What we know:
Oligomer: single chain
Organism: Hirschia baltica (strain ATCC 49814 / DSM 5838 / IFAM 1418)
Keywords: NADP, Oxidoreductase, Rhamnose metabolism
Helix content: 40-55%
Order of helices and strands: EHEHEHEHEHEHHHE
Number of domains: 1
Distance between the termini: 40 Å
Pathway: Carbohydrate degradation; L-rhamnose degradation
Strand content: 5-15%
Protein name: L-rhamnose 1-dehydrogenase (NAD(P)(+))
CATH architecture: 3-Layer(aba) Sandwich
Shape: globular
Family: Belongs to the short-chain dehydrogenases/reductases (SDR) family.
Amino acid sequence: MLLKGKTVMVTGGSSGIGQAIAIGAAREGADVAFSYWGSDEGALKTKEAILETGQKALAISGDVALPESAISFVQETVEVLGKVDVFVSNAGICPFHSFLDMPAEIFERTMRVNLHGAYYMVQAAANQMVAQKTGGSIIAISSISALVGGEYQTHYTPTKAGLLSLMQSTAIALGKHNIRCNAILPGTIETEINRDDLADASKRSYMEARTPLGRLGKPEDLVGPAVFLASDMSQYVTGASLLVDGGMFVNLQ
């Protein structure tokens, strides 16, 4: 029960990594508010799993790309759950596309969701934490893509590098308020984002072979690292980045 008594907010909580972290936080004793966009079925699954742990759950539908969504998400969380102790910026998209003919609308939408949306959400959560005067933890789900390139991800990798940089800068800006800001960098995790890409058997085998632990990641693999950074066990950790990639990044051979 490492998060007992805490209130955790997660964006993109209806599937994948966000869903796993939201449920995992509840199992560690936290009340959880999560946002989602599109999948009511997935949101209901997350909410029911949280309630089964005996913790409170709040599901809020909203587009993180809109600045006003950040303010309303925080306000509703405080109205229902009373406070914000931990914020996890997870929501993101990655519509794979080649660089030379990248449609402006795909590039712009990816930037608005992954980077602009995260910025406004982090800002709103931080302002609430500052008002509470009790400190807090902010975690951004960046990616191994913040450190390496991707032929069909030229619109995506800059957003993940931006999230890593945002956590480094906000760690400095918010340290005086005892708010810690850290980034998690997942490797290849099996989620809806890359389901079609990994349907290619040869591509899947290649990615598995590049991973020293011999398998692709699961959303649940991110729960432990997120709980650690959310909990008081990491009270002197800020501005850090944690690779959760099965060793893929260091495997150059």
